[in-house]
Amino acid sequence: MQRIAQGHKLRSGRVSESHRIYLITAVCHKRQTIFSSLENGRAFVHAIREVKQADTLCYVVMPDHIHWLLQLAEGADLSHAVQKAKSLTTMALRKSWPGTVWQRGFHDHALRREEDIQAVARYVVANPLRAGLVKSLRYYSLWDAVWL
């Protein structure tokens, strides 16, 4: 049976709220392990530093997807901020990864006011541990958090 792409459904009901904190998950095209090399993973890290529409609170780059905890800037649009990061990453990877980098769309979770932001950040950066990629985060280079 053929699978039908449904990334457009992720945009349904999406709202951008200034100063709101969002947890973003974006997946590599066909779950390819594009970010398994440090150099490719750093392309995403450099990209989010260029996105002026959002302040990065933490991130982790996994081999086939990313998690990005951000606070949206005044008047910024969430879709545009994520699109900018994905676009800059794709442009940086043109030579090392000539194919499609990202699946369409992304998942977002707007944190509620009562959610513990640092607990969410700890959960995000612990992804490599839960995936069994490393036994300690000190051995994984593709993560950061503003609280460190």
TrEMBL record:
<protein>
    <submittedName>
        <fullName>Transposase</fullName>
    </submittedName>
</protein>
<dbReference type="InterPro" id="IPR036515">
    <property type="entry name" value="Transposase_17_sf"/>
</dbReference>
<dbReference type="InterPro" id="IPR002686">
    <property type="entry name" value="Transposase_17"/>
</dbReference>
<dbReference type="InterPro" id="IPR052715">
    <property type="entry name" value="RAYT_transposase"/>
</dbReference>
<dbReference type="Pfam" id="PF01797">
    <property type="entry name" value="Y1_Tnp"/>
</dbReference>
<feature type="domain" description="Transposase IS200-like">
    <location>
        <begin position="17"/>
        <end position="127"/>
    </location>
</feature>
